[in-house]
Design brief:
The complex is a heterodimer of chains A (about 180) and B (about 400). Chain A has six helices and seven strands; from the N terminus they run H-E-H-E-E-E-H-E-H-E-E-H-H. Chain A is of the alpha/beta class and about 180 residues long. Chain A has a single domain (about 20-175), classed as Rossmann fold (3-Layer(aba) Sandwich), CATH 3.40.50. Chain B starts with 11 loop residues before the first strand and ends with a helix. In chain B, helix 6 (about 170-195) runs antiparallel to helix 11. Chain B is of the alpha+beta class and about 400 residues long. Chain B has helices at about 50-55, 60-70, 75-90, 95-125, 130-150, 170-195, 200-205, 210-220, 220-225, 235, 260-280, 335-345, 350-360, 365, 390-400, and strands at about 10-15, 30-35, 35-45, 160, 165, 300-305, 310-320, 325-330. Classes of the chains: A alpha/beta (about 180), B alpha+beta (about 400). The interface of A and B includes residues 30, 44, 45 and 60 of A.
């Protein structure tokens, strides 16, 4: 009885800490830079993403949220998976931009696999070409809100998701 | 600071990328170091290669306008403009004067946005985050103007084949002039900061120095080349569109180091502001578009534009159908990349991010194609090697690590 109480308190604490200071890592797997400069713009004074406690972080081993831009190209595919696997559990993926959602204009090109969800389970989708910085902030904020208030799943794990890493959507449920 | 490096003792290879805090885009570098000194550098590109050049062959001319615009999100207008100009040349059509002036205005706004973006990123790599934050805050002025004109902050879609999509109203002219006044004041301040701040100068003065001869030999173009005294600017060498009327001033520096590149880019912003002022006040009257045929006559052409990073070059061949037969894109970064690998030798590892950022690299522009050279084979004049073709497995082994 006491352990389960302790567990629920620590779980609540963990969620509280996670929601209030998520560290994000950004990876460009074939984007045209448009989304990347808008992600960078969210950090700058006008949009100031850091007021939500979100910090862009260089190492995947320190990151909670993977922000992906661009369609997945064949060369970047392995590296994207490797970065995802290096992130500690629980981990969340935000796909930013039309290309990350579906491949966008690059759909069908010989070196393009498709959207991020062909490779990784995606938790939040931010559409736009490129999305405005406000939209990116909204996407990340919605992801964080879904952690503290469990609602319907944001996405189903993709068929091509790596077997050894747990799909992020399920992890999100375990956390809350 | 540059000094000959003797190879002695243990050497290590430090891999950087494709995901690395110092790289905003994926690229893989291997620096061979002797202690702190870099003795050799190699680069592996192609993470952002999507196959656009092949893709455009199965899309019609209008669809390609949007596809090619998305080669690069920073100089998107340049790509659309150089393509539209090439197709117009093939079709024997010329965009109306007002459309050409609007193209110039958007192109120069884009140059300001690109150079200010670079200023921030370069300052960030030097550890001067205050300048990064300030320059990106002021860059929002340009983004607002571009959004007011086109409806989008990035990928403006200003161009149509045979003209432009939107007009500039007198109200917008007023906004542009106000924005330019603000930016001019801010950029004068940044020029002062960059030229006088001893902490920043310690990171940029004498670092990554490239002589004019080296710049010519390595084919450095754009602001990177101009910082070494290479007087080359497509806007002046082969004026196109409204640049025949509104002449830019060539910005040169003789030092060839990072300080020179800061200097050249900041002065180019000032010149762009002047050009925009001249163009919006003397905007020619008339139509925005002219009639374009759906099928483009058989033929081939070359079209060149000065992108913020240097010369953007398009080769377009038409076979008389609705779709192009071949489009070859050449972007500036791939040429400037050679200078990074050469300049890296003899510098400290800590200077590598600065030297890389110094050329304002755009990986999504330069990941155009794969040219293979087997060990021991020499490429004649930089062309692809004519020799035995690789099997798929050999290719995979060589390229996809």
């Amino acid at each position: 009885m006491a352990t389960s109480l302790l567990d629920s308190i620590t779980a609540g604490l963990k969620t509280w800490a996670r929601v209030n200071s998520p560290w994000a890592i950004h990876f460009n797997s074939g984007s045209c830079n448009g989304c990347d400069i808008e992600i960078l713009a969210t950090l700058t004074p006008r949009y100031d993403l850091e007021r939500f406690g979100i910090k862009l972080q260089g190492s995947p081993r320190h990151a909670d949220v993977l922000i992906c831009t661009g369609p997945v190209t064949r060369q970047a595919h392995d590296r994207l998976l490797r970065i995802y696997e290096q992130m500690p559990e629980p981990k969340f993926v935000v796909a930013v931009g039309s290309c990350a959602l579906s491949g966008g204009v690059f759909e069908g090109l010989y070196n393009v696999i498709g959207g991020i969800d062909q490779v990784l389970p995606v938790d939040a989708y931010v559409p736009g070409c490129p999305p405005r910085p406000e939209a990116i902030i909204d996407g990340v904020a919605k992801l964080l809100a879904s952690l503290s208030n469990p609602g319907p799943k944001l996405s189903t794990p993709a068929s091509g998701a790596p077997a050894e890493s747990a799909p992020a959507a399920e992890v999100a449920e375990e956390v809350v | 600071m540059t000094q000959p490096v003797e190879k002695k003792g243990d050497r290590f290879i430090i891999p950087i990328g494709p995901q690395h805090p110092a790289l905003k885009e994926p690229g893989h570098f291997e620096f061979t170091v002797d202690g702190e000194m870099v003795t050799d550098a190699t680069v592996r590109l192609g993470y952002v290669h999507r196959g656009i050049e092949k893709g455009v062959e199965s899309r019609n001319y209008v669809q390609n306008l949007y596809m090619l615009e998305r080669i690069c999100g920073i100089c998107s207008h340049t790509h659309a403009m150089v393509y539209a100009m090439g197709v117009e040349k093939l079709a024997g059509v010329e965009a109306p004067p007002r459309a050409q002036a609007i193209r110039l205005i958007v192109a120069e706004l884009e140059r300001i946005h690109s150079h200010m973006l670079w200023l921030g990123v370069a300052a960030h790599e030097a550890g001067f985050d205050t300048l990064f934050m300030y320059s990106w805050r002021d860059r929002e002025t340009v983004m607002d103007l571009l959004e007011a004109l086109s409806g989008n902050r990035v990928n403006y879609s200003a161009n149509l084949l045979g003209g432009v999509k939107f007009d500039i109203t007198p109200d917008q002219v007023k906004d542009i002039l106000e924005g330019m006044a603000f930016l001019e004041e801010r950029n004068r301040h940044y020029l002062e900061v960059v030229m006088n701040d001893m902490l920043l100068l310690g990171r940029i003065r004498g670092v990554g120095t490239m002589s004019k001869a080296d710049a010519e030999r390595l084919g450095a173009i754009g602001p990177t080349g101009r910082a070494s005294g290479v007087a080359r600017d497509v806007r002046l060498d082969a004026p196109y569109g409204a640049y025949r009327t509104f002449k830019p001033v060539l910005m040169l520096a003789e030092t060839g180091d990072l300080e020179g590149r800061f200097n050249v880019r900041l002065r180019e912003i000032m010149d762009s502001i002047r050009l925009i002022r001249e163009a919006v006040t003397a905007l020619p009257e008339g139509e925005l578009t002219t009639r374009m045929p759906r099928r483009i006559k058989e033929g081939e052409t070359v079209s060149r534009v000065e992108a913020p990073r240097g010369e953007a070059f398009y080769f377009i061949r038409s076979n008389g159908s609705e779709m192009p037969d071949r489009i070859k894109v050449r972007t500036p970064t791939i040429f400037n990349m050679a200078t990074v690998l050469t300049l890296a030798r003899g510098h400290q590892l800590a200077d590598m991010p600065m030297i890389l950022v110094g050329i304002d690299p755009c990986f999504s522009c330069n990941d155009r194609m794969v040219s293979l050279k087997r060990q021991g084979e020499e490429a004649a004049g930089g062309d692809a090697v004519a020799g035995p073709v690789m099997t798929w497995n050999e290719f995979r082994k060589a390229v996809m690590r």
